[in-house]
Amino acid sequence: MSEEKNQTYEILSENYEQEMLAKKKAGKKKGREEGPVKLTITSLMDILTILLVFLLKSYSTDPVAVTPSADLDLVKSTTALMPEQTVTITVSKSAILVDNAMALAVKDGKVDGTQKRGGEDGYFIIPLNKMLTDAVEKQRRIAAVNPSAGKSLGIATIIMDGDTPFRLLTEVMYTAGQAEFSKFKFLTISNPEGA
Amino acid sequence: MARKRKQEQPANDINLVPAMNLILILIPLLLTAMETLKLAVINVATPQIGPASEVTPPDQAPDEKPLKLTIALTDRGLHLYARDQVIENKDDPLGPTIPKKDGEEIIDGKPVTGKVYDYEKLTQMLSDIKDENPVEENIIISAESHIKYRYIIQVMDASREKKEGDKKKTLFPNVILSAGVA
User: Fold this and answer.
1) pLDDT for res A11
2) What is the H or E stretch that residue B167 is in?
3) What three-state secondary structure class fits B2?
4) pTM
5) Contact A163/B150, CB-based, under 8 Å?
6) If we measure between CA atoms, which residue out of A119, A123, A94, A121 comes closest to residue A109?
7) Which of B16, B46, B149 sits opposite A160 (nearest CB)?
8) Which residues in chain B have Cβ-Cβ distances shorter than 8 Å to A54?
9) Which residues of B touch A (CB under 8 A)?
10) pLDDT at residue number A90
11) Average pLDDT of chain A?
12) What does the DSSP 8-state code read for residue A143?
């Protein structure tokens, strides 16, 4: 009986020793993998810093930001003049905006007669004129403190959908004219080749 | 001095993790906000009420009528006026100066065949007028009330300059937009 016990013990201990050895080996391997890895990220930081500076620069030099959509299909043109920081009047298929603030709604390329002085045949769009007058007033106040900002007084950038009828364009320009805007810049997508 | 040097710590690695976090957030943000389209503008003026000297170029003979070159866009084609007179189309005296021609235009990204404005002929005619009036730079553009804005821009493009090989000849870059054609 005791002999049998001893035998089992021997077998067990042999197994135990082997298992422990295997565990030790595995542990060692694992330890080597988990050890502190040092990444050299200096070059990556260089790239990212250059990219960041470039993006920040291009971000700050865009005076007009437009996202074309189905509602605002910009026209291509061969002109090469750069946009400037001015009051913007956006005329999309569904709305007229002044400096990205909603002025009034547009339906089928027309402004509702009730929004115009003189009804359907009128040229003077009342809500648009109010917003433009406010924008001019704001510009004047800025120009009083910062004379360089006064350069864009009386200039408006018109961002218009390609399908807008000429009638609405003249209405918008007439209304802007009444709010002391005399020069206009039509914003287009630059296409120097004209293709 | 020597003491100070002793106090200095050996160069430690700077912890760049917060800076990396900031940069990695800012870059996608700026990339999405970045303008991928190149935008440009066309300067347009409205008719101004003022002394005639502002309209007449200084070196033009005073007794000569101002050119007042005008293009009017209608459904049938382009009507040209100079010195308050219609520039007649010899083939069709009652029709527009430059009638629409058969051609193809892209509407909503699809080519559509039909009658289109003849911009090449317009540029050619304006180039001839420019040769006769080299100092004139103004052009008045007008249209019927339902004419789409894109055609007006295209007429402005056609009247601004003419390509002559590698060179560009400036035609009438100063656009004045006038109220609609009745």
Assistant:
1) 58
2) strand B167-170
3) helix
4) 0.73
5) yes
6) A94
7) B149
8) none
9) 16, 19-20, 23-24, 26-27, 30-31, 33-35, 37-46, 48, 73, 143-150, 152-154, 156-157, 160-161, 163, 177, 179-180
10) 93
11) 82
12) H
Q: Which two tokens stand for residue A29?
A: 């391997």
| Of residues A3, A1, A21, A2, the one with CA closest to residue A13 | A21
The residue among A88, A75, A154, A27 whose CA lies nearest residue B106 is A75
| Radius of gyration in angstroms for the set of CA atoms belonging to chain A, rounded to a whole number | 36
How far is Cα A80 from Cα A189, in angstroms, rounded to an integer? 10
**Encoding tokens for residue A176?**
């802007």
Question: Which of A55, A162, A190 shows the shortest C-beta gap to B40?
Answer: A190
Burial-class residue A94 by CB neighbours within 10 Å (0-12, 13-18, 19+): exposed
Test B148 with A68 for CB contact under 8 angstroms.
Answer: no
Complex ipTM: 0.73
CA dihedral A137, A111, A71, B108 (to 10 degrees): -130
Domains, chain B, in order of start with CATH, read 2-33 (no CATH), 44-177 (3.30.420.270)
* Nearest CA distance, A23 vs chain B (angstrom): 36
Residues of A in contact with B106 (CB under 8 A): none
Give me the mean pLDDT over the B139-158 stretch. 91
What does the DSSP 8-state code read for residue A151? G
- CA–CA separation, A101 and A138 (whole Å): 14
Residue of B39, B148, B162 to mutate, interface with A, max A Cβ within 10 Å: B39
pLDDT 10s digits, B93-141: 788 888 888 888 877 778 888 888 888 888 998 889 888 888 888 899 9
Query: What are the tens digits of pLDDT across the range B19-30?
Result: 888 888 888 888
